[in-house]
Amino acid sequence: MNYLDLVPVTGVIMNISGNDCCNQMIALRTDDGVVNFFLTPETHVVNSRMLRRGMRIAAFYDSTLPVPLIFPPQYNAVMITILGRNEQIALNYFDSNLVAGDNSLQINVGRNTVVRTLNGQTFSCGLGDRTLLVYYTATTRSIPPQTTPEKIVVMC
């Protein structure tokens, strides 16, 4: 899978519904209005956490797939991650200097930065030249902005 085709939508879960046991729909309240996401058995929830109303999440959809032109927008969720208060995410390719491919962020790995694979395993190799899901709260005002992330998920 090309993780760089994934687009995040961040918001708060308003409702979780479903008419069968394996598929659900999540109504997400975003800054731009309501967005619906379909969850299937193929949807990966980072850390396998149970989703509940009121949670702040980022749901990712594949921008290369067609979507129906309806309101509110509806997407198939490829991946979902739960976000903490004031937590931001960046899913991008990071070069050997840990600068994002679009120059939007540079990461400085700290002693307390948790580094895992998508399935939760410890990752002990170099982070450069990989696609990373970076969780952070604050950045510098430099160009590119720099941050010491709380957590990094390596998209192997």
Describe what this molecule looks like in 3D.
The protein is mainly β. 0% of the residues lie in helices and 44% in strands. The protein has strands spanning 6-17, 24-30, 33-39, 44-45, 56-62, 74-76, 79-82, 88-94, 106-107, 114-117, 130-136, 146-147, 151-154. The strands form three sheets. Strands 4-7-5-1-2-3-6 form a seven-stranded mixed beta sheet, with no helix packed on it. It is globular, with a radius of gyration of 16 Å.
Query: Using only CA atoms, what is the Rg?
Result: 16 Å
Strand order of the largest sheet: 4-7-5-1-2-3-6
Describe the largest sheet. 7 strands, mixed
Number of helices: 0
Order of helices and strands: EEEEEEEEEEEEE
Strand content is 35-45%
Fraction of residues in H or I helices: under 10%
Residue-averaged pLDDT: 95
Number of strands: 13
Question: How is this fold's topology laid out?
Answer:
Elements: E1 6-17, E2 24-30, E3 33-39, E4 44-45, E5 56-62, E6 74-76, E7 79-82, E8 88-94, E9 106-107, E10 114-117, E11 130-136, E12 146-147, E13 151-154
Parallel strand pairs: 3-6, 4-7, 9-12, 10-13
Antiparallel strand pairs: 1-2, 1-5, 2-3, 5-7, 8-11, 11-13
Write a brief caption for the model.
With 156 residues, this protein is mainly β.
For this entry, give a set of tags:
156 residues; 44% strand; 13 strands; four-stranded mixed sheet
